[in-house]
Each structure stands twice: as structure tokens, then as C-alpha cells.
């Protein structure tokens, strides 16, 4: 049977955008986690230099790129990762979507992709794109319930995805438990850690703190440095998996642009700009959580990330999304997009401060 891709989730929000646009100033879009704040000036200047634009860039990433990523891992998590055990990816969504297909070429006897039952939809889509089977793992109290995975799925599991802090819930997973489970069962554990700089309830954590064997940590400059448009990140961990993926991705022609590689190296060597962004997001989370509570929407502050996972008694996710668009001019994502979240909405606090203040004022007057 041929594959027909489903509608892209955020393209299903046109009716909500139309309702929200009726407000003076237009709709405030909090549906997609796309940063709006400017990157720091020194990064914009680095990109303008266009270093490396003439020749083909390294698919695995320049030594400067990989070394800067390794230094950042050491500063952030006190783990030592060699430059050969780090490699570039063209934005982490591309890596998430392609990992299972490349892993299956290496382990053709395994055909199951495990992923959190409430999560970013690309984990499940990664299986569909290469003809594998996506199996959701129950999330209990914010953590993967790995004991609930059927033995038949364990024996065929190719990759287990973890996401901590979680998109959309903000929960923090037990990464040590995931790493240990993967090693016991011979399953590669891929830990999507792109929101780790915005961990609120505990110190930031990486799966690499449990050791590199059998695991990959995936990171991005999209959120931490407001550079989603340059499409760049890295993966690091198990030397045999990094070496294999470096090779197969080179054959596929996957390369981060040369000027972007120079930019990313600068970005990972500076933490000050990330601290400023943390302050912005925490302030916005508090503003919107309080304003939503004032009109009867339960939107508790998350343990991490910059999303509010919200609900309102008597309304499912689509109804609540419509209510917010019609009453406050804000576009949010129904929880259905993320699996088992039909009574929720995800609110990304990525709009400009003035826009969020305007939405908050409307919510307070409801």
C-alpha cells in the first residue's frame, strides 16, 4: 500500500487564525515554537562574514563546530565527549525524522520505533517515513513507563526516543532509567534535549551523564540562540553509532552550510545570551499562566521548555483552542497534535512581549 502523508498539523489551524485575526492588531500566534527574539549581535555579525561559503562544508561538521559542542557539553553536564563522537545535523527535526531509517539499514531485523505517547509528532512520523512501526510508550507522571512496553515490541525495538524537557508537556523524564533500559535490551536510546537550557524545576540533565554506550543526545541552536532559521544542531554519544551515522549521512549529502557552521561554533562557546533568553521565557510563562488562571484555564508552570500544557473544564482541545482564538485573539495548538492530549492545548510563549501582554489583558477581562 502506498504512503499518503497526513495533513501537516499546523496547516489545520487556518480557521483558528481567521477567528483570532478579527482582533485589533491581528492574531497572536502561540501555536508553533518558533523563536521571535533576535539572536545576539555577535552571532549576526559572524553569519554576515560568510566564512566557509565558497567550498563544500564538512558533512560531520568542522572541527571548530564539533569542538565547541563538546566544550558546551562539558560545561553544561560535566561530561567528556571527544570531537569524533559529535557530529552536525541540519536541524534536529531532520535528524529525528531520518534516524530510524538509517538505523534500520544497520539493524534490518528490528522494525519498531518507540516514542512517548504524548510528544512531538515527528517521532512517530519517523517510523512511517521509512515503513517501520511506531509504538507509543505510556507516559506516567511525566516519565516513560518502559515496563509497559510489550515484550514482542521490546525484542523488535530499533530506537527509543526520549524528550526531556518534553514538548508539549514540559515534564522531565528519567534519562538514566531510559539509558539503562536501552542497554539491557540492546535498543538505541535517542534523547532529544533541545529544550535543556530551559529547565526550570531541576538542574539541566543529559542522557550522556549516564555514559555514552547505546545512547545519542540530540541538541540544537534553534531554541537556545534564537537561530531556528539557520537549521543546525548536533548529535553526540555512542562512538559506533556516531561513526556509522556520520558516514551514511555524508553519502546522503546532508551538510550544514559553511557560514552556519562558523556561527554555531560561536553560539556554543557563549552562554550569556542563553541566560538572557531564559529570563524572557520564564517571565512570559508566568505572565500567561497567571492570565489563563484568571479566566478558568488551568495552565500550570512547566518543569521545563517554554510551553503551557493547558486545559479548561468542559472543553476538549479543539474547543479550547477555538475559545481562546475567539475570546483572546491567540492561536494555540490542540493537544491532539501530540498524541494522548485531546483535552489539552499547547501554548508556546514565543510571541513578542507586547503581543503576550495584549493577550493576557484580554484573558483577564473575560
Structural topology:
Elements: H1 14-20, E1 28-29, H2 41-48, H3 63-77, E2 86-89, H4 92-106, E3 112-116, H5 122-128, E4 133-137, E5 139-140, E6 143-144, H6 151-156, E7 157-163, H7 175-185, E8 188-192, E9 215-220, H8 221-224, E10 233-237, H9 239-251, H10 258-268, H11 272-294, E11 307-310, H12 317-328, E12 330-331, E13 333-334, E14 345-348, H13 353-364
Parallel strand pairs: 1-12, 3-4, 3-7, 7-8, 8-9
Antiparallel strand pairs: 2-10, 5-6, 9-10, 11-14, 13-14
Helix pairs in contact: 1-12, 2-10, 3-10, 4-5, 11-13
Your description of this structure?
This protein has helices spanning 14-20, 41-48, 63-77, 92-106, 122-128, 151-156, 175-185, 221-224, 239-251, 258-268, 272-294, 317-328, 353-364; strands at residues 28-29, 86-89, 112-116, 133-137, 139-140, 143-144, 157-163, 188-192, 215-220, 233-237, 307-310, 330-331, 333-334, 345-348. Helix 3 (63-77) runs parallel beside helix 10 (258-268). 50% of the residues are buried. The mean pLDDT is 97. It is 39% helix and 15% strand. It has 13 helices and 14 strands. It folds into 2 domains: 9-30 and 273-364, Aspartate Aminotransferase, domain 1, CATH 3.90.1150; 51-268, Type I PLP-dependent aspartate aminotransferase-like (Major domain) (Aspartate Aminotransferase, domain 2, 3-Layer(aba) Sandwich). Strand 5 and strand 6 form a beta hairpin. The strands form 4 sheets. It has a 7-stranded mixed sheet, sandwiched between helices. By secondary structure, it is α/β, with parallel strands linked by helices.
Amino acid at each position: 500500500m502506498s504512503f499518503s502523508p497526513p495533513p501537516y498539523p499546523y496547516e489545520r489551524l487556518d480557521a483558528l487564525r481567521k477567528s483570532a485575526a478579527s482582533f485589533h492588531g491581528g492574531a497572536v500566534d502561540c501555536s508553533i515554537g518558533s523563536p521571535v527574539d533576535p539572536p545576539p549581535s555577535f552571532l549576526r555579525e559572524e553569519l554576515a562574514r560568510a566564512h566557509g561559503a565558497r567550498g563544500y562544508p564538512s558533512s560531520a561538521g568542522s572541527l571548530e563546530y564539533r569542538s565547541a559542542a563538546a566544550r558546551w557539553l562539558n560545561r553544561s553536564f560535566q561530561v567528556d565527549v571527544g570531537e569524533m563522537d559529535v557530529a552536525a545535523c541540519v536541524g534536529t527535526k531532520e535528524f529525528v525524522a531520518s534516524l530510524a531509517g538509517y538505523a534500520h539499514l544497520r539493524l534490518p531485523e528490528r522494525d519498531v520505533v518507540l516514542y512517548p505517547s504524548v510528544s512531538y509528532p515527528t517521532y512517530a512520523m519517523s517510523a512511517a517515513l521509512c515503513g517501520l512501526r511506531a509504538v507509543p510508550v505510556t507516559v506516567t507522571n511525566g516519565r516513560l513507563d518502559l515496563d509497559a512496553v510489550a515484550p514482542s515490541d521490546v525484542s523488535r525495538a530499533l530506537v527509543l526516543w526520549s524528550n526531556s524537557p518534553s514538548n508539549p508537556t514540559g515534564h522531565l523524564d528519567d534519562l538514566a532509567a531510559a539509558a539503562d533500559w536501552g542497554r539491557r535490551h540492546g535498543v538505541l536510546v535517542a534523547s532529544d534535549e533541545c529544550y535543556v537550557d530551559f529547565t526550570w524545576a531541576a538542574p539541566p540533565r543529559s542522557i550522556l551523564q549516564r555514559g555514552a554506550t547505546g545512547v545519542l543526545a540530540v541538541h540544537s541552536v534553534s531554541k537556545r540562540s534564537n537561530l531556528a532559521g539557520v537549521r543546525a544542531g548536533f548529535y553526540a554519544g555512542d562512538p559506533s553509532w556516531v561513526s556509522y551515522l556520520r558516514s551514511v549521512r555524508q553519502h546522503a549529502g546532508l551538510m550544514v552550510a559553511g557560514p552556519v557552521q562558523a556561527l554555531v561554533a560561536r553560539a556554543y562557546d557563549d552562554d550569556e545570551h542563553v541566560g538572557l533568553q531564559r529570563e524572557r521565557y520564564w517571565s512570559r510563562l508566568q505572565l500567561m499562566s497567571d492570565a489563563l488562571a484568571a479566566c478558568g484555564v488551568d495552565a500550570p508552570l512547566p518543569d521545563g521548555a517554554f510551553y503551557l500544557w493547558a486545559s479548561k473544564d468542559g472543553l476538549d482541545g479543539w474547543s479550547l483552542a477555538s475559545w481562546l482564538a475567539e475570546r483572546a485573539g491567540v492561536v494555540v495548538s490542540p493537544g491532539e497534535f501530540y498524541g494522548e492530549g485531546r483535552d489539552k492545548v499547547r501554548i508556546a510563549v514565543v510571541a513578542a512581549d507586547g503581543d503576550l501582554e495584549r493577550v493576557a489583558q484580554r484573558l483577564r477581562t473575560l
